[in-house]
Structure of CoA-binding domain-containing protein:
Amino acid sequence: MSWNYDSKHTPSECTCAVPLLLRAREAWTDDVTHGTSVHLPTKLQHRTYRAHPFGDLIPLRHTSIPTTRGQQHDADMEAALKTFFSSPRFAVAGASSDPSKFGHRVFAWYLQHSLPVTPLNPRSPTISVLSRDHTTVPSPTALSDPPASDYSLSVITPPAVTKQLLKEAKEAGVPAVWLQPGSFNDEILQYAQANFKAAIAGDGGVGGEGWCVLVDGEAGLKAAGREWSRL
């Protein structure tokens, strides 16, 4: 190993322009300049090191790896999915007997994944899904046995309805909501994010239209470690 060593400087100030072999059994192939900080992409990556003229790396300080806005958003959504699917029970606002409506398809999704679910529909005392009748409740405040705090709420209603629905859900103690695409605007999204422990909505998910239970639900179940079986 050759060094460009200036005797006027201390070893901490000399420079090196040749590869440095790590003593930590990690291959290092980049040329480094002595006295500068280098970041390692392995077990050592959370510490900052500088080159020493005798072949060692000297730890300078602990440092953190910057997190991008996209990475933080993904982490936040994963946490929200875990919270949502950790609830003992679920409710679907906008559940419908009409197979052409998303309220029907989302409610059926919960049934098909063997999840305990209650339909919310103020206009009909029952709905028919998967060849069975299901008793509805009119609003989140009617979720009383068990209490609303045991439920996560899927919302498939027009934005004008969703705003009042979320206020009732907050009053009832619902901890987490999933707003299907088309059920909210920016104001409603901000309200949901500010007033619930978890709010799933907006850009993201596997599909191109935002977070959807039908597309992203199984990934959420996996993230939460929720056991389920397809019916």
Residues 69-85 form the longest helix (17 residues). The chain has a mean pLDDT of 80.
